[in-house]
């Protein structure tokens, strides 16, 4: 298994603070800090081992050693290239996932998931995707390379989807309707009064009389939220036959995570990525 060592230069604002306080400000959980503290040379300052109670000063170099936790998934080198890497640093990697590829392995997908590809690209690391896309939804998927990065990225990634809805949408809009599991189904969701709060904002990009291409920002992250919301207003996504969409012109649901932005957890670098919609989605408007 791999490990990660992070170095922090103590800033003037942190001068006189204790190691534990600085780690808390830098986003380390109490649980993670306790584990690092128990690791040999888990915390060092200017090369010397320290504890969480040591007082640090401006200019000191605090090194944090984090052994890998978790089991690495099964590796499938044959998947290399199917989900291209769009960004990578020491703490996060972003894939452009195609349709017909699940994010996680399951009973029917033991070695053809993004999880298996990640194992080939980043051997020895546990798989920590920040969010999940449905198997037949394409787009950008960030994966944290360690638990510290996963914690800091959770709920801190801005996502924009692009969808082709059936029919003509007249104006930009907001769909504010609670989403819950449909009675008698394990997979299907629906709008229901006792569902979880869900809000989707969309703007129209273009239409052709039969379909409308929209830019979608889900302000909440309910399962199948975008698909359910557009079906609820009478405009199911093209290809989404689970929620009433037609597959006459497209074989997979016309939903694509095309823009994300985030701050890389340790470097502080702002990352902005975009991925063009799929050819089959674009073909609906030709």
Roughly what fraction of the amino acids lie in strands? 25-35%
What's the helix count? 6
- Largest sheet features: 10 strands, mixed
* CATH top level class name of the largest domain: Alpha Beta
Summarize the structure in words.
- This protein has 286 residues and is an alpha+beta fold.
- It has three domains: 3-67, Structural Genomics Hypothetical 15.5 Kd Protein In mrcA-pckA Intergenic Region, Chain A, CATH 3.10.290.10; 69-156, Pseudouridine synthase (2-Layer Sandwich), CATH 3.30.2350.10; 159-256, Pseudouridine synthase, CATH 3.30.2350.10.
- It has helices at 19-25, 30-38, 114-121, 147-153, 225-232, 279-282; strands at residues 3-9, 43-45, 48-49, 61-67, 85-88, 92-97, 128-129, 138-144, 158-166, 173-176, 179-181, 189-191, 199-207, 211-218, 255-263, 270-274.
- The strands form three sheets. Strands 5, 6, 7, 8, 9, 10, 13, 14, 15 and 16 form a ten-stranded mixed β-sheet that branches. A four-stranded antiparallel β-sheet has the order 1-4-2-3, with no helix packed on it. Strands 11-12 form a two-stranded antiparallel sheet.
- The chain is elongated, with a radius of gyration of 22 Å.
- The mean pLDDT is 94.
